[in-house]
Please model this.
Amino acid sequence: MATLFRCSMWLLVLVCSSLPGNMITHQVFAADWPQFLGPNRNGISDETGLLNEWPASGPAEVWRVPGGVGMSAVVVSGGTACTLVQTDGQQFLIALDAKTGQQEWRTAIVPEFRNQMGNGPRATPAIADGAAFVFTGDGTLARVELASGDLTWKVPTFERHPGKVADYGMACSPVIWSDVVVVTIGARDATIVAFDLKSGETRWTFGKREAAGYSSPAVLNVGGQEQLVAMTGASVYGVSKTGQRLWFYPHVTDYDCNIATPLLVDGKVFVSAGENHGSTLLGLLPVADRFRPSVAWESLGTGSVLRNEWQTSIYLGGYLYGFDNVGSAGPVTHLTCVHPKTGKVAWQEARFGKGNLIAADGKLFMSTMKGELVVAKASPVAYQEIGRKQIIETTRQAPSLANGLLYLRDDAEIVCLNVKR
Model:
């Protein structure tokens, strides 16, 4: 993963709790959550010292504040929490004190975005270089200074690279790669674009005349080379730092509904999609200065083991944990654990329901679509729930975790919970 994504400040926090006759000190290893899917863009935090038992009334609520409409998750860096919201006719980036919820600033980016599949921004900001980089529902990319909220630059991507907004809105969460910020836009002359962090100028483009889809790319070290792995509306690509194609694999879904982020699994690339598509694990064989993808295993169609609709699975402890969405955007969803070497199911919690997940300290932290927080052990043996509680209203956002605090949001509020042991 790019070095910038490892620039979180790491600290040691001592959390003390008293038991009869003893004082037990737990070490908590804490980290920021500076982008979509966390520090390494895989949904996993290295934090430890998180709850093992469910408190009688659930995790303590630290703060709850008004937010706004949208599907953007919360990111946290240096004590500031940010997310994109839609309110008062605008799409705003808002910054909150991560510990208190007090608003530090809010910056209007563009007018509101409305869509039949839900209003407001979809993408999650990325924090790097002292700034937050945001991508709005209509396809505007912007840089906002984290300390002040000042809007440094703003690029309406479809004015610079002619094209049109995806049917369900622009959903690619920006990824920072060295000195550029990259988004998938699906323009006529540019499927993927890298913009200069400082100026917003276009540094390179990749691909032409291919639908953007709704996936967010990741920078992965795969095949012995650091590369951008991006899933568009109909394909998976490996792209070099200069915007050259390294490899290609077709991945066609109904309605261009490739949404999950490509995942590094044992040196291979795991991709999955809903709409009854399924999952594939790809190995990369170096050939000259490019790669030839080969299928390690695939599970496709109505009997697939894992059909990620709008969730990215978690690869933890040698197993994949994810949501298997049955049918074409249907209501039936199974929480599933899969052995990635074989593609065989280890266990399945049938009809768990739609949701999203992250992992830390050997646990899965899940937000259900109806607004519950569910915590379970990340075990390949069986589903082992620690507890659940209704926290917010309907949501599609994954939780975010930083410094022992977990953040959730819906279309009205942003909530912070203490999940320390």
Notes: The CA atoms of residues 275 and 329 lie 6 Å apart. The radius of gyration is 20 Å. The chain is about 0% helix and 50% strand. The domain at 3-418 is CATH 2.130.10.10 (Methylamine Dehydrogenase; Chain H).
